[in-house]
Amino acid sequence: MLRSEQNPEERLGLQKGPTSYKTPVNIYEERCGMCGVIQFVDEPTLRSICAAAEEGLDNPARCAACEEEYEESAYGR
């Protein structure tokens, strides 16, 4: 089975969260706060990243690989 057949939301640009490519919703370019890879986010996500930066916090944006790694280390998996 083709990947696009497994995830029709991805093909239609309806998936949630950051993506490695622009979608109709994820149009804002942002770098992963851990590894620096470029990803694309939606407007609410971009606003929360900007708010964190204004507060002097580290960039909370994480790519899928870093998010998985972070969760594994945080929960001791």
Describe the structure.
The structure is a single chain. This protein has 77 residues and is α+β, with helices and mostly antiparallel strands. 42% of the residues lie in helices and 10% in strands. It has a two-stranded antiparallel ribbon with strand order 1-2. Strand 1 (28-31) and strand 2 (38-41) form a beta hairpin. The mean pLDDT is 82.
Name some characteristics of this structure:
two-stranded antiparallel sheet; 42% helix; alpha+beta; single chain
Number of helices: 4
What is the count of β-strands?
2
- Low-confidence runs (pLDDT<50, min 5 residues)? none
Strand content: 5-15%
Largest sheet: 2 strands, antiparallel
Mean pLDDT: 82
Question: Could you say which overall geometry the principal axes of the C-alpha atoms support?
Answer: globular
Gap between N and C termini: 30 Å
Instruction: Please estimate the helix content.
Output: 40-55%
How many domain units? Answer: 1
The radius of gyration computed from the alpha-carbon positions, rounded to a whole number of angstroms, is 14 Å
Q: Strands across the major sheet, in which order? A: 1-2
Structural class designation: alpha+beta
Helix/strand order: HHEEHH
